[in-house]
């Protein structure tokens, strides 16, 4: 292919998406979704819901378009949404935010993460500590920023980091410790010890903490604890979330970053020139969602937990070793008991063998670290119950 110069190669290489001859490689998500489409297999690969969220939220968006909410909203987001975000942080976590200064609406959590990493790092001497496996955008964005990714491994069965390994990853070169909790892809919810250690290391090495809390309402057993609420964390923490996962509106891309005004201003300085603004008619709709009664939020977690269990039953019956998740859309299993030695090959064969599509965990790790995850596979449970029941029945037949 043509040799197109530029930073795109860093991003693609960072995410493991560039072949040796410089050609872009499609993501495993695209490959597996195409495989699902070709074979008619049930797609438990990519994590998006197959039904709509609450009707009242959808109604507000429809009405907003009809009412002419179709031009650029303010740069920081519609004030009523910023107020709703502040109220939500106070209602669930006791965090007090000034909607004028401490809240920024973004094009999904993804833009908030990208803008934060670009804002807080400046070249190859700056390091970003992440837990591995990680959401694929992290490695690509850190690479695009020209900074260095420093992964700390999470291992089965509980996927909590080893605190000594965490301590040795953080240094005075660390600009950002990036924490995704509840965690995609493993479904882990980090222990209080882990969160405390992150805060203490950030202090010791004068690093910032950036959190990705898009699954904040999808923790099954214990209420979510934002790191920003830990003693000493607030002034160095940028908290990121999004309406996509909570309200089953992943296509709307309404996210937000909250924290001390100077951190939010730094992110705004970058975000302003990425998208400027987005999703005007969706912003009042997400404000409505954030103001739904507590029962909605608990109900969402309970419904997803029941779906996790439907999927888990099928995965157990199939003979996988199942690492029961404490939150998120996802369940990770070890396919080694079924004879797998290479999760990617196993996933390529699964539509044929069982009519189900899943994602190998190696898609979420740095290329040199794949062997530790060689037989692990991620399944998504964010589908209609009857779809999961059918998938579970098909998977159970694998052991026959
Ligand atoms: C889905 C997801 C995102 C993306 O959120 P958007 O609001 O759609 O940009 C970010 N982080 C994690 C861990 C996710 O799973």
From TrEMBL:
Cofactor(s) listed: pyridoxal 5'-phosphate
Q: Which SUPFAM superfamilies match?
A: PLP-dependent transferases (SSF53383)
Q: Does the keyword Transferase apply?
A: yes
Query: Where are the membrane-spanning stretches?
Result: none
Name it.
Pyridoxal phosphate-dependent aminotransferase
Which CDD domains does the UniProt entry name for this protein? Answer: AAT_like
* PANTHER family given in the database record: FI04487P
* Enzyme class, UniProt record, top EC level: transferase
């Amino acid at each position: 292919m043509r040799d197109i110069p530029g930073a795109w190669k860093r991003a693609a290489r960072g995410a493991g998406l560039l072949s040796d001859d410089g050609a872009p490689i499609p993501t495993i998500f695209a490959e597996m979704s195409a495989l699902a489409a070709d074979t008619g297999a049930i797609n438990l690969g990519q994590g998006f819901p197959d039904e709509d969220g609450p009707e009242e939220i959808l109604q507000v968006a429809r009405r907003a378009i009809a009412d002419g909410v179709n031009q650029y909203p303010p740069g920081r987001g519609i004030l009523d949404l910023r107020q709703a975000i502040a109220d939500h942080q106070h209602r669930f976590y006791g965090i007090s935010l000034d909607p004028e200064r401490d809240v920024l609406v973004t094009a999904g959590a993804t833009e908030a993460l990208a803008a934060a990493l670009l804002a807080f790092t400046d070249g190859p001497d700056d390091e970003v500590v992440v837990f591995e496996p990680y959401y694929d955008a992290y490695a690509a964005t850190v690479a695009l920023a020209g900074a260095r990714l420093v992964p700390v491994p999470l291992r089965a069965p509980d996927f909590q980091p080893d605190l000594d390994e965490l301590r040795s990853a953080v240094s005075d070169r660390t600009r950002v410790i990036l924490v995704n909790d509840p965690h995609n892809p493993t479904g882990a919810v980090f222990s209080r010890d882990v969160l405390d250690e992150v805060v203490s290391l950030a202090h010791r090495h004068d690093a910032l903490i950036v959190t990705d809390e898009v699954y904040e309402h999808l923790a099954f057993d214990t209420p979510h604890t934002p790191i920003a609420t830990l003693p000493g964390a607030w002034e160095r923490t940028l908290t990121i979330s999004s309406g996509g996962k909570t309200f089953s509106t992943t296509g709307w891309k309404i996210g937000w970053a909250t924290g001390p005004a100077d951190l939010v201003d730094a992110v705004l300085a970058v975000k302003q020139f990425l998208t400027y603004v987005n999703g005007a008619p969706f912003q009042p709709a997400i404000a409505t969602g954030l103001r739904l009664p507590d029962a909605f939020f608990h109900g969402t977690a309970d419904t997803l937990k029941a779906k996790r269990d439907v999927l888990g039953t099928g995965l157990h019956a199939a003979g996988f070793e199942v690492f029961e998740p404490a939150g998120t859309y996802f369940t990770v299993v070890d396919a080694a008991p079924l004879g797998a030695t290479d999760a990617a090959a196993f996933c390529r064969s699964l539509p044929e063998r069982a009519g189900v599509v899943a994602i190998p965990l190696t898609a979420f790790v740095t290329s040199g670290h794949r062997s530790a995850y060689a037989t692990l596979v991620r399944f998504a449970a964010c589908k209609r119950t009857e779809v999961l029941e059918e998938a579970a029945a098909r998977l159970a037949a694998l052991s026959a």
